[in-house]
Amino acid sequence: MNLTYVVFDTAVGVVALRSLAVLGKRAPWTSAGWGATLVAAGAAVAKYAQNGPQSGALIVAEGAFAFLTACFIIAFVRDEPQAEPLLWPVRLGPTRAQRR
Fold first, then answer.
1. What's 100's DSSP letter?
2. How far apart are CA 24 and CA 3, in angstroms?
3. Is the pTM of this model over 0.90?
4. Where are the beta strands (DSSP E) in 5-94?
5. Vertex 70 angle, CA 90 and 94, to 5°
């Protein structure tokens, strides 16, 4: 067991849940990205909490990471609002267009 990775990935999962709660359905691609982040963090916790190789968790984590990357790129191009501040989201931030 690698406790450092388990704690870190659990913290990332908690921030992902908080971001999903703040965003709701107002930013669908950003929410999908945070949902995939939650899945990737959960798979990483499963991978690092066990001793020995966990090929299933690795495949899920890598697939979720690829999906979350695509979702956040699409959200950036669509100029969706983000949950702010980054480490503990409490509000919906302005889009790039709203900041101009």
1. -
2. 31
3. no
4. 83-84, 91-92
5. 30
